[in-house]
Amino acid sequence: MKTSKFPADELELALERVSTPNKTVIIAVVNQAYVEQIAGAETTMLDLFLESFWLGEDTRPLLDHLLLVSVDQIAYEMCFFKRLNCYKLETEGVDFGKEQIFMSQDFINMMWRGTLLLLDILKHGYNFIFTTFNMAKERGHPR
Fold it and tell me: Is this prediction's pTM over 0.90?
């Protein structure tokens, strides 16, 4: 498995920007599959996820503490365009932009890379809540 070091200054700046006073952040990982609208769909997975913060009871302020970790350039650009809190996770020689087949080598590499990111966040002295979009996908969003 290939690993790469985070530019500590970029990650630290991103964590400082979104953390609560007790150094807690909400982390969600996004790639191209989550930010692009699929033919026939009314919205993107990212839009559905963000909408849940608007519709939930007292959840809007949590958006200030959400850090979207983009694993490819397209996801990063969309995150930046939407003026969200973004961090681009760089991994040399691996393209996480496409949907990964469950338990394929690329899927396993992507999972390990995410785990290493969470470890690095802890090493920086931050707490985190890690969330995923899969529930929205299972509720009827077309693949």
Answer: no
